[in-house]
Amino acid sequence: MLGAKPQKRRDDRLIIHFDYDCFYASVFENENPSLKSVPLAVQQYEARRRGLHKLQLINEAKKIVPDVVIVLGEELGRFRDASKALYNFLAAFTWSGKVERLGFDEVWMDLTDIVDFNISLLNPHDLEHSFFQLQRDDPTTGFSFNATKIAGQVFGTPITSANPNQDAENNLMTRLTLGSHLAQHLRWALEEQKGYTSTVGISSNKILSKLVGNLNKPKDQTTLLPPYAISERDVQSGMESNVTTFIDSHDVGKVPGIGFKMSQRIRNHVLSRPADFETGLIYGGTKESVTVRDVRLFAGMGPELLEKILGGPGAERGIGGKAWNLMNGVDDTDVQQAKKVPTQISIEDSYIRLDTMPQVLKELRILATSLLKRMHTDLLEHDDDPDSVIGKRWIAHPKTVRLSTRPRPPLNADGTRSRPFNRISRSGPLPGFVFSLREEFESIIEKLVQETLVPMFRKLHPSPRGWNLSLVNIGVTNMVETASEDGKGGGRDIGRMFKRQEEVLKEWKVEDKDIPPDPLPVAEENESHSTEQTDPSAGNEVLDSIMNGSEDAIQPTQTSVEEQGIWEDDEDADEGQEKCSECGAVMPAFAMPAHERFHSFEE
DNA sequence: CCGCTGTAG
DNA sequence: GATTCTACAGCGG
User: Fold this and answer.
1) Dihedral of CA A332/A208/A184/A29: which sign?
2) More confident residue, A592 or A405
């Protein structure tokens, strides 16, 4: 039995995927229309990007070709700006605000509401002369289109099924038709008004729209035609939905969401080669391609088997079912709402050799400087208030700073081989003084490096020598938006719980056999911590701000509101605490199981 | 919350 | 992964 189980499809959305053509080259062109030496610009960038494996080789290349222009670090900002501008442009068309960016040059849009609204406006008697309304309340803004035809390219045979699920597939067809015209309009607008051409895929979910867009690459669009789902009977008679036909032709690893690790595991299983060593893994090595069809038709294949192949400790729960869905073109994940602020900002650099403290210090300063600049460009916005002297205010405060390194594997005594390259990291509270807009940039950097980054570095690398880093990364996370007055706080206790768990369990361990520890002091201690200064940032940052006398906003009212929102929302105390039903002792929830064991010992 | 893994462009 | 620099989701503690 090759019974691939039917997937429940939910094709009630209209989702398109944008891919800007040659994004990096286009940015150059748009910045400098006069210098339309297109091939040159492209080649320069490509040379930098794919080129010359490492920084070292770049330096060598420099000797050979002194003319080479190296674009790094700072230059990324221009691409980021361009990307953001295009994203905002597209976002303005949506009603739902569902616009999600992937990297610099890809965007998904959920246009279901706009399209469905326009379906309701169609005149069935004159579909050729339809008008697409871009705004709900304005019948004049929009464009004319022919609703009997799909705009742009298509994949799939329009097909007449023996057992058509007519209603669903008709609705889908109509949605896709209108969606294709809207997509064309957006592509056109993007080109006319922003100077960027793009390639678009149109379908009913993220994965399919992304994949189908690849079919007609520059400056075009592709719609995945219905039928998306067909009846059991049709399957028996050898028919196939266009979704199946389409996605089956892809290599497993090409399916978004199935990356290197997962596709390797799947391949190994399908090729029935137990854990192929990476012996012959020389790059360029032709791997036998294992397509989605190969996997799907493999004996016994299904979500359960995939769970066995892919599951395990640390794996995502239900990964088998998820992978199975992906391979069947099923993807119910939502297009994310447009976000004002990123969830993290990080800066990193890689090194041939970085093994002394002075070098590290220097690099930390460089990285911290870039990071702070990024925070300024991404997290500051103009303050309308004319009373504001500085004229800017933070739209979000990251609460956490993280330092990561990638140690170069210590050279094995016996030979040459080196092992994995994983990153290690430490994170902690981001001091408040980094938000000062008055204090000297340099002085902020210095303080950040000395007071925060260096101590974290010491935690990662306690000994002053003996390491050699191939990469250093610093980043800020845990954004708290300032406008929206602390959403659902509460999450803070969880961190504390785990933080304290270690200590408490230690005590338990030590004393378990003899005298069960008294839970009360533990609870009290914790409580005093939290009312006091469990989170050192809470007090220090406020203090720093005050002592620096400079905050992002001049107005005392705003400052205090912000600080209250950000730094003084510590009112947790009792959350996460539980009371023992046996003796009435109060303690953190995590300690309760152990405490109950204590009672069981008593008997 | 913290540290780490996997995925993606 | 071959490489570089990001960014995000999810797991287990």
Assistant:
1) positive
2) A405
